[in-house]
Amino acid sequence: MSAERFPVEASHIMMFARAIGDPNPAYDPNSAESLAGGDVIAPPTFAMAGAQFDPENTLVPRAGEPWFGSGREPGFLRSSSGGMLHAEQHFQYHRPLRAGMVLTGSQREGEGWEKQSRSGKTLQFTESFTDYRDAETGELVVTARMVGVYTGGA
Amino acid sequence: MVLSAAELNIGDSRTLELFDDLKRTQIVMYAGASGDYNPLHSDEVFTTQVAGYRSVFAHGMLTMGATGRVLTDWIGDEQLTDYGVRFVGQVWPGDTLTATATVAALREEDGQHYVDLTVSTVNQEGAPVVTGTATARIDP
Fold first, then answer.
1. In a domain, A108, yes or no
2. The CATH number of the domain where A19 resides is what?
3. What digits encode the pLDDT tens for the residues B74-118?
4. How far apart are CA A45 and CA B71, in angstroms?
5. Mean predicted lDDT score pLDDT of chain A
6. Across A81-95, A107-121, B49-63, which has the greatest mean pLDDT?
7. Inter-chain residue contact A90 with B45, CB threshold 8 Å
8. Interface residues of chain B, partner chain A, Cβ below 8 Å
9. Which pLDDT score is estimated for A4?
10. Helices within B54-116 (DSSP H only)
11. Chain B residue with minimal CA distance to A153?
12. Is A152 in the B-facing interface, judged by CB distances under 8 Å?
């Protein structure tokens, strides 16, 4: 995930919190706490939603570009994302993440390694890091470490 | 509210039901909020006929995000320093997911107290879908 500008907005946090089924009032801009002046805070995995601001995100349908999901036809497999599954996700929290902040996200590649599956297939693992920084101060807010596994399948 | 080391013991745990009969709509909500619109998570036609799965399935990050609730409901907001998981099982519509966090260690570093937790979410068959660890700041 890379984004030059990831504005962290209260309504986005509210929708994200609903999507993970978390009714914590600290995630709701209209809760009594928030209306009393408390900041809307981000749930621990919210940094992932920076994908909305990644111009290279291939998992967002875009006007004028082919989309691989079903419509009139059932769709098609895409080589660029086919077979890659999410194996691990880790976050390190350096500073609180709250509505009103603007982040930058910059991705750096980590290690790659192989492992044999129980069925004898070779699984390829790749690791990547995303540093989320406060766009104003440059301070590190969250570091995300993602491990993907290429299984060769869909 | 911040937990204090004095009120915690190794082995203490909290369990929370995250979803009972997970709906496809919930997965669509996650796609919309997160920006991961991979049709494997929302498009039954594509997923069954083209990709060859038995149905759409949840994003791993939906389960990880939901699992975070058992941590923050217990240890409070903005106390986590680390949270990481492995995705060890697929989550399907209709699943019931239950998360458990357990105190693995209590320690002090440069005067700051921390709790290390293990965390795991299982489905209705008791099969783990995510397993991981978390660390949070606590009061003495």
1. yes
2. 3.10.129.10
3. 999 999 999 999 999 999 999 999 999 999 999 999 999 999 999
4. 12
5. 94
6. B49-63
7. no
8. 18-19, 26, 29-30, 32-40, 42-43, 45-46, 49-53, 59-62, 64-66, 68-69, 71-73, 77-78, 80-87
9. 96
10. 60-75
11. B51
12. no
Structure tokens at B81: 């320093």
Closest chain A residue to B129, measured at CA: A87
What are the backbone dihedrals phi and psi of residue A53, each rounded to the nearest 5 degrees, phi first? -110, 10
Tell me the residue range of the domain where A101 lies.
Answer: 3-59+70-150
| Chain A interface test: which of B61, B73, B130 (most A C-beta within 10 Å) | B61
Sign of CA dihedral B50, B51, B56, B60: negative
Across the interface, whether the CB atoms of A69 and B39 are under 8 A apart is answered yes
For residue A64, being part of any structural domain is answered with: no
Dump pLDDT digits (tens) for A72-89.
Answer: 999 999 875 557 889 999
pTM recorded for the entire structure: 0.96
Q: State the average pLDDT for chain B.
A: 97
For the four alpha carbons of A57, A106, A7 and B75, in that order, the dihedral sign comes to positive
Q: Write the CB contacts of B56 (distance below 8 Å, at least 6 apart in sequence).
A: B24, B27, B40, B41, B42, B43, B44, B47, B93
Please count the structural domains in chain A: 1
- For the question of an ipTM over 0.95, the answer is yes
Structural domains in chain B, CATH included, are 5-138 (3.10.129.10)
3-state secondary structure of B26: helix
Report whether A132 contacts A48 (CB < 8 A).
Answer: no
